[in-house]
Write a structure and sequence with these properties.
Elements (H helix, E strand, L loop, with lengths): L2 H24 L4 E7 L6 E5 L4 E5 L1 E6 L5 E3 L5 E3 L2 E5 L4 H4 L11 E6 L8 E7 L8 E2 L3 E10 L6 E7 L5 E8 L5 E7 L18 E8 L9 E13 L16 H6 L12
């Protein structure tokens, strides 16, 4: 390639990069931190998605892979692992040493036990108050997810699962639980997980599916505990309102079409 042509190509690339940078800087954002769930036993959850307030009622359940222990207690009652409970404990780094006046604080605890070492797993997933599976709609365009974890300093690791608007479930690694005490565990949502489309629609939000804890083959699995507190997201809730923006709202459109008329309804009666 001639020297002049090389200069032209380089100049074109620089122009494209400058245009992309200018577009990125010009796009308005509204980064908002939202507590999806305190993981403290409360079942009513409210937040704002940038357009409307949202209110959901859900709690949590666990399930595990095939070698989860089943045993009996001293009275002969069957005990199945993993067990889930809301325990009177919390991360001091967040709330301090004292509970709120006249009350207490709790965290979600998992008591796990497996009969064999290996790549066993425990899923922590939301359910309705009737016990039906539930996926949490995540407001805005999620940039980051985090929560407080007490991990027993075990050589386990975690991942989070989210579902995009096409129905595809994505797994995002959250890292190891091999640390002592409480720690804020966070993960960025990868850019390849799509949270928008060219077609005008506000029905492109991610949905939280579950957390999964994995044991590893050389780590003990006979009796362990993991605790969780404060599930948060950092999300861009900016909405570009325009003439007719409500026609892209999946909650509003069905109301419009419920009152739609057909051509026959508008015919002149003779």
């Amino acid at each position: 390639m001639k020297h002049g042509s090389m200069k032209a190509v380089s100049f074109a690339i620089l122009l494209c990069m400058a245009a992309f940078s200018a577009y990125s800087q010009a796009r308005p954002v509204n980064l908002t931190s939202i507590v999806l769930d305190g993981l403290d036993g409360e079942t009513v959850h409210e937040w704002h998605d940038g357009r409307h307030p949202r209110r959901f009622e859900f709690t949590w359940a666990v399930r595990a892979s095939r070698f989860a222990t089943r045993t009996t207690d001293n009275e002969g009652n069957e005990v199945a692992f993993p067990r889930l409970g809301f325990i009177e404990t919390w991360p001091v780094s967040v709330f301090g040493h004292r509970p709120p006046e006249g009350g207490t604080r709790r965290s979600l605890g998992i008591h796990g036990r497996f009969d064999r070492q290996g790549y066993n797993w425990i899923d922590l997933h939301p359910v309705t108050l009737d016990g039906e599976p539930f996926e949490i709609p995540l407001p805005g365009r999620v940039q980051q997810m985090d929560m407080w974890v007490w991990g027993s300093n075990l050589n386990y690791f975690m991942e989070v699962f989210v579902r995009d608007y096409r129905g595809i479930v994505h797994s995002i690694p959250m890292g190891s639980l091999a640390f002592p005490g409480w720690r804020n565990v966070r993960v960025n949502v990868p850019g390849h997980i799509r949270q928008g489309t060219r077609v005008l629609s506000n029905d492109t939000a991610l949905r939280f599916v579950k957390f999964r804890i994995w044991t590893t083959p050389r780590e003990q699995v006979g009796n362990f505990f993991v605790y969780f507190n404060r599930l948060n997201i950092l999300t861009d809730t900016f909405e570009n309102f325009f003439d007719g923006s409500d026609l892209a709202d999946p909650d509003f459109v069905p109301q419009l079409w419920a009152g739609a008329t057909t051509p026959g309804d508008n015919a002149n009666n003779e």
